[in-house]
Amino acid sequence: MQAVNLQGVTDWLISGAQSARRVDEFVIETCQRMIDGGLPLSRVGVFVTTLHPNMVGRNFIWRRGSGVTMGSMAYGSEESDDYLSSPLATVFEQGLEVRRRLLDEKVGNSPFLAEMRASGATDYIALPLHMSDGEIHASSWMTQHAEGFSDAQIDGLRSLMPSLTRMIEIWLLRRTAAGLLDNYVGARAGARILAGQIRRGHTESMHAAIWLSDLRGFTPLSDRLSSEAVVDVLNTYFDCQVPAILDNGGEVLKFMGDGLLAVFPITDKEGDTATVCRRVLEAARACRASVAAMSYAYERETLDNFRFGLALHVGKVLYGNIGGGDRLDFTCIGPAVNLAARIEKITGRLNRTVLASTEFASHVDAGWTDLGLFSVAGFSAAERVYGLADETPATNGARQPQSSASAS
Question: Rounded to two decimals, what is the model's pTM?
Answer without folding.
Answer: 0.64
